[in-house]
Design a protein that fits this description.
With about 90 residues, this protein is an alpha+beta fold. The chain has one domain. The protein contains 3 helices and 4 strands. Strands 1-2-3-4 form a 4-stranded antiparallel sheet. The longest helix is centred in the N-terminal third of the chain and has 16 residues, at about 1-15. It is elongated, with a radius of gyration of 19 Å.
């Protein structure tokens, strides 16, 4: 019974230590939380004319154009989430 318990304990420790994966090779293997990651994410999601990219804690804030709308966005390069703050049409 002890070997089974040891094996199960080891398996649970390894499982807990395994980082969550998004299923996207780029974000799972190359993200570092850098400004470059934030910029690449914005461009991959169709944002253009990215300006004023600056760090705000663990996220980045920027002004960018998406679907002909200029908006401020928050970018989390670790999760890949882009949050529009405000928008104004051109």
């Amino acid at each position: 019974m002890a070997p089974v318990r040891l094996w199960l304990t080891t398996a649970l420790i390894l499982l807990a230590a395994t980082p969550l994966r998004s299923g996207n090779y780029y974000w799972d293997h190359l993200r570092t939380g850098s400004a470059t990651d934030a910029l690449r994410l914005l461009k991959a999601q169709g944002y253009r004319d990215v300006k004023n990219l600056r760090r705000e804690g663990m996220r980045y804030e920027a002004t960018a154009t998406h679907n002909h709308t200029v908006m401020q966005v928050l970018v989390d390069p670790f999760t890949g989430i882009i949050i529009p703050i405000n928008a104004s049409s051109n």
